[in-house]
Amino acid sequence: MFGAILEMMTLNEAFAFRAKEIMNEKKITQYKITQETGIYPSTMNYILHGKTKASNFKTMVLIIRVLGVSVAEFFNSPVFDFENLEVE
Question: Residue 86: left (phi > 0), alpha (psi -120 to 50), or beta?
Fold first, then answer.
């Protein structure tokens, strides 16, 4: 499914990729996520562009909850396979 799309990504980049994938599927906006989580829009922008240095798990779970999927479902994606993750 991903083929050439997959390349080495940091965990934050993989998180952003997967979040945007689900957002597109479910037609959920960044605005809705910021409103329902209380995350500042600028912080959310950094997260969704993979620019954060380290997202904490609590923030990730808040976002995943708004996306309407389980944590297991969210991380059940090839982008999180070890061979695709760059560990810094």
Answer: beta
Top CATH class, 3-81: mainly alpha
Tell me: the pLDDT tens digits for 42-73?
A: 999 999 998 887 778 999 999 999 999 999 99
Rounded to two decimals, the pTM is: 0.86
**In 10 A of CB 41, how many CB atoms?**
12
Residue 81, CA distances (Å) to 6, 31, 75 in order: 10, 29, 9
**Domain range annotation of the chain:** 3-81
Confidence class for position 30, pLDDT limits 50, 70, 90: very high
Q: Does residue 62 sit in helix, strand or coil?
A: helix
